[in-house]
Write a structure and sequence with these properties.
Blueprint lengths: L1 E8 L9 H18 L2 E5 L9 H6 L2 H7 L6 E2 L3 H4 L4 H7 L12 E3 L11 E5 L5 E8 L3 H7 L1 E3 L2 H12 L5 E7 L2 H10 L5 E4 L5 E8 L2 E6 L5 E9 L5 E10 L9 H17 L2 E5 L13 H12 L4 E5 L10 E4 H7 L6 E7 H13 L1 H4 L17 E4 L1 E4 L2 E4 L2 E2 L5 E7 L1 H4 L4 H6 L1 E4 L5 H12 L3
Parallel strand pairs: 1-2, 2-3, 6-8, 8-9, 9-11, 15-22
Antiparallel strand pairs: 1-12, 4-7, 5-6, 10-11, 12-13, 14-16, 15-18, 17-22, 17-23, 19-20, 20-21
Helix pairs in contact: 9-11, 10-16, 11-16
Length: 455
């Protein structure tokens, strides 16, 4: 009889406040296990999140350095790694990694093989049990393709992948950054996968979940839990039993130096970003959307400078602070616009545009103080929508002071966040949406400042 333990982390999102405790826990488990039974340690992606200044300053390289502190046997990527970086940044992200990156549904549009990832890896225990590990990341084609990637859906890649892997393995483990609904679908339709470790939707299975003979495991978000899976196998390498548990990190012992380490990550990130100056503002940009020099006004100007359209939309809740008169650095922009969201171009017929604008207006009072969580948002409340080139006089909307032609097509540029949240269903139902990746708002504003207010 053989016992194999799988330790798993996921969706840390650069919440380094839990990392020292997680690192010690994994290292202690690995040390003990190495003397008693095999252990496999994996991460499910979104370890990086540009909301943290150190991640932003190093394009995630420091996150990988932290992962190297633990002996990971395989990791996959999440959307924060995949579409939170340019293609060049992602190609370089794992250069110093001492672990394999497994992404089975991502390839380069130029047909060149990626050297930083593989379709699967096989881990063999001292007793000869062969554990095949595959990884799937959430497929967002409209975001990946502008970046130069082709991302496939699970049902497209799993049949040939499993046909190749099954003869070579005794156990198959899926590292899933797809979300719990996809995990359940896969468990039902691909029973040859023995264990699915889930993430992306930040769900938590404290003691796992069985669908047929497939064990589903998940450990929440932000390093609040570490997952552990125990598999028992016969001498013929057949699975006899499997179970999953989770360990709340709030119960882990904190050491005196932990807070100092955590603070040091933040200080270093701010320092690195502060050293990268962008321009010199002649006046302060205020968060008050109605002030003479409002931040949102200049951000809308930056969007117009970035890409041509008939109108532009932004919400005030995106702006977490103002910019002071004088030198502006990347740290200032990251502090005020930390959101990992990109811009989109939405094409609408005039008739549909009026419907969308009417829908947005109807949500004004509700969204003004509505707390938004996730979908790329890293602020507190949604706030108020402000526009460039959209006017309303009495009960009629105008574009660039012209009446809207109901049969003409119009293009609006806004954040992709607005197409993800539930409040504007007509936007996605009626509009043709094109991603403008890579187009983080702070980077677009940085280019505008550098062009208009040079040092």
């Amino acid at each position: 009889m053989e016992r194999v333990t799988i330790l798993h982390t996921n969706d840390l999102h650069s919440h380094f406040e839990n990392w020292p405790k997680i690192r010690r826990f994994l290292q202690q488990k690995q040390t003990y296990a190495s003397e008693h039974y095999p252990v496999v340690t994996v991460d499910l992606g979104d370890f990086c999140d540009r909301v943290h200044p150190l991640t932003e300053a190093t394009n995630g390289k420091e996150n990988i350095a932290l992962m190297n502190q633990v002996t990971y046997d395989a990791v996959t990527i999440g959307n924060n790694e995949g579409i939170g970086n340019t293609k060049e940044q992602l190609d370089n992200l794992y250069q110093e990694a001492n672990f394999p990156v497994v992404v089975s549904n991502l390839s380069s549009l130029d047909q060149q093989a990626s050297t930083w990832c593989k379709n699967f890896t096989i881990h063999e225990t001292p007793s000869g049990t062969r554990i095949g590990v595959i990884g799937l990341t959430a497929p967002f084609p409209f975001s990946y393709e502008p970046l130069g990637w082709q991302v496939s859906f699970p049902d497209e890649v799993l049949p040939p992948l499993l046909d190749e892997l099954e003869p070579q393995t005794d156990v198959i483990v899926l590292l899933s950054h797809l979300g719990y609904l996809d995990d359940e679908h896969i468990a039902i339709h691909y029973p040859q996968i023995d264990v699915i470790i889930g993430s992306h939707t930040h769900h938590l299975y404290e003691e796992g979940k069985l669908i047929g003979d497939t064990l589903l495991a998940a450990a929440g978000k932000f390093g609040q839990y570490v997952g552990e899976i125990v598999i028992e196998l016969s001498d013929q390498h057949q699975i006899v039993s499997k179970k999953a548990i989770t360990h709340p990190t709030k119960l882990f012992v904190e050491q005196l130096q932990d807070q100092e380490e955590i603070k040091a990550y933040e200080i270093r990130g701010h320092q690195l970003l502060s050293e990268q100056t962008i321009g010199h503002l002649p006046v302060s940009w205020e968060t008050d959307a109605y002030s003479e020099h409002s931040y949102i006004h200049y951000a809308l100007e930056a969007m117009a400078d970035f890409s041509q359209a008939d109108a532009y939309l932004l919400s005030t809740g995106l702006f977490l602070g103002g910019l002071s008169k004088g030198i502006v650095s990347r740290d200032d922009l990251h502090r005020t616009l930390p959101h990992p969201m990109h811009m989109i171009r939405v094409t609408l017929r005039g008739k549909d545009l009026i419907d969308v604008l009417t829908e947005m207006e109807s949500q004004h009072d509700y969204l003004l103080d509505y707390p938004i969580i996730g979908m790329g948002f890293r602020g507190k409340v949604f706030g108020e929508l402000k526009a460039k080139h959209i006017q309303k006089v009495e009960n009629e909307f105008f574009i660039q002071h012209q009446s809207i032609d109901q049969t003409q097509e119009y293009q609006l540029i806004m954040m992709d966040h607005y197409s993800f949240i539930k409040f504007f269903p007509k936007l996605t139902a009626l509009g043709k949406i094109e991603s403008l990746c890579p187009s983080l708002l702070r980077n677009v504003v940085a280019k505008y400042i550098n062009k208009t207010f040079k040092l």
